[in-house]
Write a structure and sequence with these properties.
single chain; about 900 residues; mainly beta; Immunoglobulin-like; 22-stranded antiparallel beta barrel; five-stranded mixed β-sheet; 52 strands; about 10% helix; Beta-barrel_TonB; TonB-dep_rcpt-like
Length: about 900
């Protein structure tokens, strides 16, 4: 709040001067067809003032006379017109390849041509988003080159670039109007789950690869920047209704399910000074089903896994992770519940947004914005989680000039109804178990009692029960089992979803994040060099009430800050542009980190540009990685910040788990021969190895990239690039065992016998899973190429391909995250927004190669993500008199049920019809 008050005081100090304004009106038409152009941008040069043309091509804005008006539109040649009187303007724009040379901001944090961007960048504007053959904006991103899409559910999709993909991707940054969509508690931006209504999106820019030199630690793998529509420029009412169906011929059964989404946007400018906008969307449908019941039990040989395996651990079955080895019988697991029994497939998403814009002068604008999101989504992490009624709130206050901005925002989450489905299955399983006398036992005895019943039945020790039969033994052990769908099951389900921490499956988080930043472009003050500088401070305020962090009494708060400077200069008669950037970041728990970037763009001739860059990136461990302190029974999960483990001696005074196993085995064999206890310990104690686990620190990467981007014959855009990246300090977990003794070694460096003795008893030792880093180094390299062709008659053809390769070098596979990225993927799009005056269409084809997926959900047991091919399609029909457009479309037209991450649901076709009423009440 202090940041907000400072900005408000700044606003109060800014003088307001207004010259007399005059209305500037006119129309914009296509020079060839003379048809009105809707959505053309009209701005007063050198100011923040502007508007867009309506369905009749008409526009109106106020300005001082004389003025210069800039008129632009994607696919048309921009114009600058001097206006000296009130005469209405009759403007015509010629169709050219400006679609192939868009303006971008995110690559250098200043506006520049996409052709001369120093790094690879992709952009979609409002027209491309509207015409995309996708039911939602986020789906359409799959057609951008280099993008990897992971769908956890209908309301939750994640994207990534350049490898090390994950369903919860904390290495990829998502910004909306400069606000980070990261959830402090989850530790990552939850993709399509949070954000703004699709109707309010003006453009999206994507940077594949590290952007840490300009954006800080979160932009390790890439950046997605969404810009919404300014209410001064985009006024009026837009209403959209979408209805559809999914689960058509779903192999999991259940029949087709309805899907609908209602959205509206209204913006109005009261004058040249004040404008506001409101947005709201509500999506509801039936989530995709996760029904892969493959046996992934690590302790069963692959050839013996399957439905007949007594120790089966089904992938999307929860509760059967609890297993034991019974003497004379072998490994047996408890009977679990299917995901459909313990989750909710009725999902929804509410996205609301309101913003107030005040123009202090022609070149200075103040903005207050609030985004409220709430929804339900199934999410895959180390377990499958039901994010139920998860609420996400963002507030932003910004002061923006022509060459600077100052911005402050807050991000808050409210998770009190979410829960872990795997834990829920285990807890319900402990509520109904009976002993051999038929009495229900306490929950803390349930698992042991169930295995006792199973063993007795299998050995034939139960009257009337046939022995030596696993199916019969399981049926006997399951007597009294709470059945899904019954009142008893629903009662226990509701009970344990409302209990948090070790007492239940509930997920509690009221975590917050505060951020303030600013940027100033000093270029106007220098003749030969362009200079920008900026900085930020960020503050995490965690509240999990002791369910995840040790914050029930002492709140966890983490500050960090960063600053960057960037300088560029054109040489060799403007043919060579050199840009140098450097950023310094400091988190309270880590040493300062410097991330430089250097790039060069050489223009061979007009519209032909070669680029080369050296980029660095780093990623701070999430706050949970640093401060988790959770006793889960067999071990304590312990975050890697030094202050988090103070007094526990886990990092400083422990043995490696592997050496404890070796020592315990040798000791057991020795005592079996009659050797006395102290002698056996003394003989084998030196097999113990003191652990050397470092405290957690940021991940690091370096990358080199070369590329070419050019326009041929004013109609064909070519973009190709190659990159090589090197990575170190990947975040890993390491298990250690700490004895009670103050030191595990003697002054001479040998193992302390007292510590060795304590390791042999669970009563005098403690096991920890520590968060740390691996020193192993790995590398990646890859290439991408894209072609965009503007054909005769308004047809547009796009094609791209991406190749990615992971090189593990000499690294231990256990010390690096999984690459989880297909080697090859391709996209082809074909469209015509104006096939006739009323009809438009677009088609998109996506294909990717099969690859192995490793994740914590499967205990890093690999599972294949099969190759798949998808076709998306839409056809639109415009009704100008009704200011509306009908759109009939299909995502995954062929209804191929595909999986994008092992253990996540199978995604089929979504067929929809939408009607959009635009330019109302204007």
């Amino acid at each position: 709040m202090r940041i907000y008050l400072v900005l408000i005081l700044l606003l109060g100090q800014v003088g307001v001067t207004w010259a007399q304004t005059q209305p500037i009106v006119g129309t914009v038409r296509d020079a060839e067809t003379q048809l009105p152009l809707v959505g053309a941008s009209i701005k007063l040069k050198g100011t923040q003032q502007g508007t867009v043309s309506n369905a009749r091509g008409y526009f109106e804005l106020s300005g001082t006379l004389p003025s210069t008006v800039i008129v632009s539109m994607v696919g048309y040649e921009s114009q600058e017109i001097k206006v000296s009187d009130k005469t209405p303007l009759a403007l015509t724009l010629r169709s050219v390849s400006t679609e192939l040379n868009q303006l971008v901001v995110s690559a250098s944090r200043i506006e520049e041509s996409s052709l001369t961007s120093p790094i690879t960048i992709e952009k979609m504007d409002a027209r491309a988003i509207q015409q995309a053959p996708a039911a939602t904006l986020f789906e359409s991103l799959n057609n951008l080159k280099g993008v990897d899409m992971v769908t956890s559910g209908l309301t939750l999709r994640q994207i990534n670039t350049r490898g090390f993909n994950n369903v919860g991707n904390s290495r990829f940054m998502q910004l909306t109007d400069g606000v980070d969509n990261q959830s402090a508690g989850l530790g990552f931006a939850a993709g399509s789950f949070f954000g703004v209504s699709d109707l309010d999106v003006e453009s999206i820019e994507l940077i594949p690869g590290a952007a840490s030199a300009l954006y800080g630690p979160t932009a390790f793998n890439g950046l997605l920047m969404t810009t919404t529509k300014n209410p001064f420029d985009y006024q009026g009412l837009t209403i959209q209704q979408k209805v559809g169906v999914n689960h058509v011929n779903d192999p999991a059964g259940g029949g087709a399910k309805p899907f609908f989404e209602t959205a509206l946007r209204y913006a109005h400018a009261f004058s040249n000074r004040l404008a506001f906008k409101v947005n709201a969307s509500y999506l509801k449908g039936t989530d995709w089903y996760a029904t892969d019941y493959s046996d992934i039990d690590r302790n069963t040989p692959p050839g013996e896994r399957g439905t007949a395996n007594p120790g089966r651990n089904g992938l999307n079955i929860y509760g059967d992770e609890v297993a034991a080895t019974l003497p004379g019988i072998g490994r047996v697991s408890r009977t679990g519940y299917f995901e459909k029994d313990v989750t909710t497939y009725d999902v929804y998403s509410i996205k609301t947004n309101a913003a107030l814009h005040y123009r202090i002068s022609n070149s200075l604008e103040a903005i207050y914005q609030i985004n409220l999101n709430q929804g339900t989504a199934n999410f895959t992490s180390s377990s499958r989680n039901m994010l139920r009624d998860f609420r996400f709130t963002q507030q932003r206050l910004e002061l923006k000039g022509t060459n600077f901005f100052v911005r402050a925002y807050s991000v808050a989450e409210n998770s009190q109804n979410s829960y872990n489905t795997r834990s829920l299955g285990q807890f319900i399983n402990r509520t109904w178990v009976r002993d051999l006398n038929g009495n229900v036992v306490p929950v803390n005895q349930a698992d042991a009692t169930w295995f006792e019943r199973y063993g007795a039945a299998y050995r034939g020790a139960v009257g009337g029960v046939v022995g030596q039969n696993h199916e019969v033994a399981r049926a006997f052990a399951d007597q009294g089992r709470v059945q899904p769908g019954t009142p008893a099951f629903e009662r226990e389900k509701e009970k344990y979803t409302q209990l948090y921490g070790l007492q239940g499956a509930g997920v509690f988080s009221l975590c917050k994040m505060y951020h303030a930043e600013g940027l100033y472009d000093f270029t106007p003050y220098f003749r030969v060099v362009s200079i920008q500088a900026g900085g930020n401070v960020r503050y995490y305020d965690m509240q999990t009430n002791g369910t995840l962090l040790d914050d029930k009494e002492n709140r966890v708060r983490v500050p960090e800050y960063g600053a960057f400077v960037q300088a560029s200069r054109a040489l060799l008669r403007e043919k060579l542009k050199i840009t140098l950037s450097g950023r310094f970041d400091k988190n309270q728990n880590f040493a300062g980190n410097f991330t430089p970037r250097a790039s060069a763009v050489y223009t061979v001739q007009e519209n032909h540009h070669f680029r080369a860059s050296y980029q660095t990136g780093f990623r701070n461990p999430t706050v949970v990685d640093q401060f988790i302190k959770l006793n889960v029974g067999p071990l304590i999960l312990l975050g890697g910040a030094p202050s988090n483990s103070a007094g526990l001696n886990a990092y400083e005074n422990s043995f490696t788990a592997a050496s404890v196993g070796t020592f315990g085995g040798a000791f057991g064999q020795e005592t079996a021969t009659g050797t006395p206890f102290p002698e056996a310990v003394a003989k084998h104690k030196d097999k113990l190895v003191k652990s050397k686990v470092p405290y957690i620190r940021p991940e690091q990467m370096r990358a080199f990239e070369v590329g070419y981007k050019g326009v041929l014959r004013n109609r064909i855009l070519l973009d190709a690039s190659y990159y090589y990246g090197s990575y170190t300090n990947f975040l890993i977990n390491q298990v250690v065992i700490r004895p009670n003794s103050a030191s595990v070694t003697l002054p001479d460096g040998s193992i302390n016998p007292a510590a060795a003795q304590e390791i042999l008893s669970t009563a005098t030792r403690q096991t920890f899973q520590l968060y740390t880093n691996a020193s192993d180094q790995v590398s990646t390299h890859g290439a991408s190429a894209g072609l965009t062709a503007l054909l005769a008659g308004g047809y547009r053809l796009g094609a791209n391909a991406t190749w990615a390769q992971f090189n593990i070098l000499d690294a231990n596979p256990n010390n690096v995250p999984a690459f989880n990225t297909p080697r090859w993927k391709t996209n082809v799009t074909f469209s015509n927004a104006r096939l006739t005056n009323h009809i438009g269409f677009s088609l998109a084809w996506h294909w990717q190669e099969a690859f192995l997926w490793y994740g914590t959900f499967t205990e890093n047991l690999p599972g294949e993500v099969p190759a798949y091919s998808l076709i998306d399609a839409q056809i639109s029909y415009k009704l100008p008199k009704l200011k509306s457009m009908l759109k009939l479309g299909a995502s995954n037209l062929g209804n191929n049920y595909v999986v994008q991450a092992y253990g996540s649901p199978a995604i089929g076709g979504l067929y929809y019809l939408s009607v959009t009423f635009d330019d109302l009440l204007r």
